[in-house]
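Progress narrative, work stream C.
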Amino acid sequence: MKHPTLKWLILTLIILSAIIYMYIKKQDSQSSAEATTKQEESTETKTKQEESTVTLAAVGDVLIHSRLYIDAQQADGTYNFHPMFEEVKPFLTQADITIANQESVVGGSEIGISSYPSFNSPYEVADAMKDAGIDIVSLANNHTLDRGEKAIRNALAYWKSLDVLTIGSHTSFEDAKRIPTLKKNDITFSFLNYTYGTNGIRVPKGKEYLVNYIDETKMKHDIQQAKTQSDVVVVALHFGKEYENIPNKEQQKLAQYLADEGVHIILGSHAHVLQPPAFLTGKNGNKTYITYSMGNFLAAQTDGFDDRYTGGIFNIRVTKKEVDGKQIIELTDSSFIPTYITNEQENNYRIRPLESIPQEELPQKEQISSYLKDHMPQYMEELKIE
């Protein structure tokens, strides 16, 4: 006959062993879960640390016609262009980088102010643009050589004194070899700029550095150099046909060439009217953002057509990521803020967000707005019009 006490003792030991085993297993499971959570948190933190973002804003032609500098002239002979930019300043300053096409050379009053067809603008234009939030100006356009080398050198020196980056025009061959770069939020951008021509004015022999012309061989070389010293390559092009609101085949062909070369962003100007932006796909599957024409940002062309007074602020978000040890650049959140140049009988010229202008002040506002909502997203359905 078995001893009952021994039987219960064995049973008790078995139960205790089971309880201890389950407790240890639970503790191990909790420790493993905590370790996994910490690892996931660490990975997430690392991912966030390896992701950088920059917002880039771009605007079109700043072309100072006589009516603008007459409006800006003060009693003492100086000029004040600040009010013209006042209403768009908040939109220009909120971007990390803002670039404009400075079409009329800012050569200063000392060599004589002039308008169409041979432009030279006062230094005060640059002061107002700097104050409004412009970080970079593209200078290679059909008016670069209007007033010769003196105007160009004056302009380059003055922009430099304001700490505004200039592209497309240089003081020497040595200067022209350098790729202008700008670093923001751990992303380095390089900026290149070229024009189709200079209104038949030839660059002085031996001074070809004064303006960059569109040349695929040169552009290819510059882009390759830019890739070695930056994360993002931006090219500003002065190209196309004036007053055409759709990019032509030559524009599209050149844009595709640049996309195939790996350019990330192309900023077009010259048409003086808005052309729809687009995303292109390069031969390596890369994504390229292009504004074929950004229209006039500040100008006073005498015909007064609405499309030549309509411009805008183009915005794109640039994100740099590290994925499996490989750097990736993403272009997202493309948006467009329509602007309109208003005046009161050729006085008080202002660049204004279209939405802020009262209907009674601009009776054709709804017509312009409706046109832009149809016109601008036709190559880019996701374009946000603000």
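Work stream C, second folded protein:
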Amino acid sequence: MQADERGSYPIELLQLALSKSGRAIVARPSEFAMSQYRTLKQLEMEKGIDVVWTMTNAEREQQVRPIRIPIDRGLIGWRLLAIQQKDFELFQSLPDETALKTLLTVQGIDWPDYKILQTNGFKVAPSNFFDGMYQMLQVGRVRFFARSLTEIWPELKSLRDSDRPIVVAPRWVLHYPAALYFFVRNDDEELASAIESGLEAALKDGSMKNLFLQHFQGILDQADLQHREVVELTNKGLPPQTPIQRSELWFNPKQGF
């Protein structure tokens, strides 16, 4: 697994789950940054990675073993729009979501979000490199970059010294059902069982909720979702085994958790 500012919560949650599992397993972050595709391949082929957290889809759930408890309560599917500051009024005044869909956006070519946005009628440019996506936005090749609530502010913080300021667009938020899971190798039932039992225990005793709010309460307040227009999208790549019916696992804007 990898650690950066966005990754501190998954690491802490994994450590919490393992501590509650009763097994003597210690988690150590990987020292290497990799694409989602490569990370999953390294996990699948036993190349020094035992746990990955990433957004699920049907293909990934065949490749590796999901722990079907969304570790971010589905926040990965709540998407704010990173835009150039000069376009703030443009996004404020767009008449409807149809107009929003005429503006070119960007996503990683190996990300589930790429197909999600495409199938929902957005014009999406593909990219192989994460840093390149923000560069495309800064030079005006695309008009926005949809990022999850848990990602967008740490990322914009790293860009604040740019001569082309990037900000969060007003008014809009995209939403599609999506789950960020821990994944292990298909044959690693011991680790899968430890993580799953630990997460269920953390859900039951409230420690997962406390950790979630510790990391994300400020972000949720800043996002102010109840005063944004929600563009509801479908996610045809969401596996049927996704525990949508377990309402206690998913973020509810009206409840704030």
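The first strand starts at residue 52 and ends at 55. No further action is required on this item.
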